[in-house]
Amino acid sequence: MSRVRVQIMNQFHRKSHEYKAIKRYWKLIQQDSRKLSDKRFYRPTFRMHLTNK
Fold it and tell me: What superkingdom heads the lineage (predicted)?
């Protein structure tokens, strides 16, 4: 799974918004979707409230 994440990250420039978002939230990407929370959190990267799902 981490190899796929790195391949996707390599498609973006290091200063791009997408690259930074994937780098920051890599643990969420690798978690089992059944274990993710429905609680809303403010995500400064996206400038909005989002759930982990």
Answer: Bacteria
